[in-house]
Amino acid sequence: METKEVDHERMRFLRDKFNVWAPMYETTVEKVSIQSSFNLYSVTRANKGSKICEVGAGCGLSARLFISYLMKDDSSYFVSDISDEMNKIFVQRFLDTDTALDPNVKIESLEESESIDVDKEISRFSDRFSKRIFSLRANNEFLPFPDGCFDVYISTLSLMIVPNPENQLSEAYRVLEEGGIAGFSVWGRKENCTMMTFVGEVFKEAQLDYTSGSGSSFKLSDKDALVKDVKKVGFKDVKAYYTMTNPGFASVEESYNYAITAADAKLSYESCTEEQKQHFKTTFYNMYEERYGDSTSEMMNWETLVVVAKK
Ligand SMILES: C[S@@+](CC[C@H](N)C(=O)[O-])C[C@H]1O[C@@H](n2cnc3c(N)ncnc32)[C@H](O)[C@@H]1O
């Protein structure tokens, strides 16, 4: 499969966007996206992995749970994201966990570098640490690791965001050893993702201008096409399935707060006047009540597409 030149300017734009969004991401989306992460830890058998690479890990709620409850002894886990804010939250929250007090566990933040010698970094840890965790800034399209150095690769909900997914797929293949397993998840079919599309319907109903900030995030939601792309970079035994990752928002407020701060609608919302914002809010609450309120058993939904593949 042809790879493309990495668009560094676009990358910086995305990094800035995720840096700003990180605190809100932690309080809203992450508690939902753990469902998707645990799908991947399960299908890749990451609990048996010795050298695990997780990319686009966000604020790392699932990574922390993985470390505490699934990661096996005598293993190493490289947790990366392009956003420094996401990485910072991951490390800070990790240091607050009981697991961080375990004398066998150690975390280290690595400086961003074009080349990181994974085995050397691991060997710098004393033998007494049986779970070795590394946090670093890295771009999924251009990983700093040598060829064939991991046995598990995890990417939850970031492949559909990067400008050139083919680059990320090639990198996943490159950094895995023969027989290594990769798991990817991306947004599912648009019609099954009301968590993303509802806000657009509210703008329409309220007769306000709306441009979807993440409209293209559905670009990988065709299962057969994605399987083909994954095979094209060399993976075999490629399996894929759609699954639900239901947001289960506790309240209309939570759903509304997510809608106005998430990348998808943030810009459209912020360009409204105060009066328009109020009108938007009333419309949102009314439509939400009608579709997902106390009188119905309907929930917003968020389908994801999971792919697991072997090198
Ligand atoms: C939707 S979030 C998913 C985060 C986490 N995996 C989860 O499931 O909650 C996408 C993450 O990908 C990161 N990201 C976006 N583009 C990236 C890139 N090119 N390289 C590495 N990370 C990237 C973002 O900073 C963000 O943390």
TrEMBL record:
Pfam families: Methyltransf_11. Transmembrane segments: none annotated. It comes from the Eukaryota. InterPro entries: Methyltransf_11, SAM-dependent_MTases_sf. GO terms for molecular function: S-adenosylmethionine-dependent methyltransferase activity. Residues 117-182 form the Methyltransferase type domain. SUPFAM superfamilies: S-adenosyl-L-methionine-dependent methyltransferases. This is Methyltransferase type 11 domain-containing protein.
